[in-house]
Design goal:
The protein has 14 helices and no strands. The protein has helices at 58-76, 78-85, 91-112, 123-144, 150-157, 160-172, 178-198, 205-227, 233-243, 245-258, 265-293, 295-302, 305-315, 324-341. Helix 6 (160-172) packs across helix 8 (205-227). The two termini are 21 Å apart.
C-alpha cells in the first residue's frame, strides 16, 4: 500500500526515442508531513503531492493512467509472489536472490542510460533507502509470511502510508493538523484491533515482523523522498538496489548453503516477479504514468492496492478471507483518504 509525505517538486523528465535513458519523473512526494517522498521497491507513492500539469492530449492521459494502473497491479502481487517464492526458497535466500536479480536489472538500465554515479553526498541517503526498502521491508515481510497469510499481511501493511507520514513528521518537525493525527490514530487502532482479533488476543511473531517492517520501510521512504528532489525516482531505487549487490551476493551464497532449495514453478515465478516485477518494472511504469497524469490522480488509483492483494490471495493462493479482512482493509483506506484531505 502506499503513501508518502512531503511536498517535493514533481519534475517531468523527457524521454527521447531511440535512447535507453528512460528517465522517469521525480516523484512528487506526498502529503501532510514534511520532507519525504517516493521511492520504494514495492511502490509506496505519495497521496497528496503537488499536482503535475496534465497533458493536453486526452489519449495521452489515458495512456498515463494505464501505465500507473500497471504499476499498482505489479505492487499488489508482491505478497502472493513472496508466498510462492517461499515454496522453493528459505526466507533469507529468497530476499538475497531477489536483491541480486533486482540489482542486475537496475544496473543494466542505468548502464544503458549512461546514468552517471550519484554525487558522494547522496550515498548516505541511498544507504538508508537500501536498508529500508531493498533489505529491511522485503526481509521482515518475508519472515512474517512464513506464519501469516497474505491477506492478513495486506491489511497490516496497509497502514504504511500513515506510518510514513508519522515518521516524516517526526524527522522534519512538520506539524500536521489535529484532524490528520486523529485519522492516523484511527487507522492504527483499526489495524491493531484487526491483528489482535486475528491472532487470538496477542500479537504473533508474524505480526511483530510486519509492524517492524512498517518502521524500517517508512524510514526508507522518507529518505527516498528527499533524494527524489535531486534524482529521478527510478534512479533512486536503481542505485539503492545496486548498492546492495555486494551484500546480496554474499548473503545469497551463505543462505543457499544453509537453506535447502526445493525447485518448483511457483517458486521460480515468485522469485522472478519479486525481482523484475515488484522491484523494477512496477516502479518504472508507475513513475512514467505519474509523470503524465500527476501524483494526486495516480495516488487515487493506488488506493485499490490492498484490496487487489486480497483478490490475488484468494485467486492465486486459495486463501479464505474472514468477513473482518475486507472490512478492515476498507476502514484503513478510509482513514488514509481522510489524512489526504486534511493538513
Amino acid at each position: 500500500m502506499t503513501a508518502q509525505n512531503s511536498a517535493t517538486r514533481p519534475a517531468a523528465i523527457a524521454v527521447q526515442s531511440g535512447r535507453a535513458s528512460g528517465t522517469s519523473s521525480r516523484s512528487g512526494s506526498a502529503s501532510t508531513t514534511g520532507d519525504a517522498g517516493a521511492s520504494t521497491t514495492d511502490g509506496v507513492i505519495p497521496l497528496t503531492a503537488p499536482a503535475a500539469t496534465a497533458p493536453a492530449g486526452h489519449g495521452t492521459a489515458r495512456g498515463g493512467t494505464a501505465l500507473a494502473l500497471l504499476g499498482v497491479v505489479a505492487f499488489s502481487l508482491t505478497f502472493p509472489a513472496t508466498a510462492w517464492g517461499l515454496e522453493s526458497f528459505g526466507p533469507w535466500s529468497l530476499v538475497c536472490l531477489r536483491s541480486v536479480l533486482g540489482a542486475l536489472i537496475a544496473g543494466g538500465f542505468l548502464l544503458a542510460a549512461r546514468v552517471p554515479l550519484p554525487a558522494r553526498a547522496h550515498w548516505s541517503g541511498l544507504a538508508v533507502v537500501a536498508g529500508g526498502v531493498v533489505v529491511g521491508f522485503p526481509l521482515l515481510t518475508t519472515l512474517a509470511l512464513r506464519t501469516s497469510s497474505t491477506s492478513h499481511a495486506a491489511v497490516v501493511v496497509g497502514l504504511l502510508p500513515l506510518t510514513t507520514a508519522v515518521v516524516s513528521a517526526l524527522r522534519t518537525g512538520a506539524r500536521p493538523s489535529g484532524r490528520f493525527w486523529a485519522a492516523a490514530v484511527a487507522g492504527a487502532a483499526v489495524v491493531l484491533g484487526f491483528t489482535l482479533a486475528q491472532s487470538g488476543g496477542a500479537l504473533s511473531t508474524g505480526d511483530w515482523f510486519l509492524l517492524a517492517s512498517l518502521l524500517v520501510c517508512a524510514a526508507g521512504y522518507t529518505e527516498g523522498g528527499r533524494l527524489t528532489r535531486l534524482l529521478p525516482g527510478w534512479q533512486v531505487i536503481g542505485w539503492a538496489l545496486v548498492l546492495c549487490l555486494p551484500l546480496a551476493l554474499v548473503g545469497s551464497a551463505l543462505a543457499l548453503a544453509y537453506e535447502p532449495v526445493h525447485p518448483t514453478w511457483h517458486g521460480a515465478a515468485g522469485l522472478v516477479w519479486l525481482a523484475a516485477g515488484s522491484a523494477f518494472f512496477g516502479l518504472y511504469v508507475w513513475y512514467r504514468g505519474m509523470a503524465v497524469i500527476g501524483a494526486p490522480r495516480a495516488s487515487q488509483l493506488q488506493l485499490a492496492q490492498p484490496l487487489l492483494t486480497l483478490v490475488w490471495s484468494v485467486a492465486l493462493l486459495g486463501e479464505h478471507l474472514s468477513a473482518a479482512t475486507p472490512l478492515a482493509a476498507c476502514a484503513v483506506l478510509v482513514c488514509i483518504t481522510l489524512t489526504q484531505r486534511v493538513k
